[in-house]
Amino acid sequence: KYAKEENLVNVVEPIERSDYPDTETEFFSIQNVIGKDMAINRAEAQMAAKTELALKVQTAVSAIARQQLSSLSDGVNGKQQQNSFDQRALSVSQLSIAKVMLMDSKLLRDRETQNYDYWVVYKVLLEDVTQVINQSDLGITINPKDLFKNQ
Asked: pTM for the complete prediction?
C-alpha cells in the first residue's frame, strides 16, 4: 500500500548477494560500475573487488593476531606494535588476494545515456589466502576457518 501511494517500484539487483555468501572456503565480492568504456569498467570493478577482499582478509588477520600474539596488546609499545603489525598485515592481505577469480557478471546498457551498467562477482579461495599468510613474516598460523570466523 505504501509503495503504491508513494509511486515506488521494487528494484531488484541483477546479482543477488544471497547467491554468494562468504563461506569457510571462499570470500566473495560483488561490484557494480557504470560507464561508457568497458575496459575501464572491468579494471575498476576488479580493483574494487580486490580492495574489498583484501580488507576482509586484513580484518580477520588482525583479529586472529590479537588472539595469538600477546605482544600486540601488552606493554607500553603495544599501540606501536599493533600499528606496525597492521601495516604488514595489510601488505600480506593484498598479496594474498592475487588469485581472485571471476565468478559471474551481468552487463546492462542504458538506452538513453548508452552507459554500460556492469555487475560482477569475484571470489578468492581462503586456502590460497592462508598459504600466503602462513608463509609471511606475521608470526601467526591460520587456517581458512579462522579467517571465516574472524571476518
From this structure: 0.85
What is the spatial distance between Cα 17 and Cα 120, in angstroms, rounded to a whole number?
Answer: 11
Contact 146, 50 (CB under 8 A): no
Determine the Cα–Cα distance for residues 49 and 107; give it in Å rounded to an integer: 17
Closest CA to 44 of 53, 59, 31, 28: 31
Closest by Cα among 26, 60, 50 to 120:
50
Who has greater pLDDT, 8 or 143? 143
Neighbouring C-alpha atoms within 13 Å toward the C-beta of 79: 1
Q: Which H or E element spans position 56?
A: helix 38-68
What span, in angstroms and rounded, lies between the C-alpha atoms of 4 and 135? 57
Amino acid at 49: A
pLDDT in tens, 104-113: 999 999 999 9
- Residue 106 pairs in a beta bridge with 119
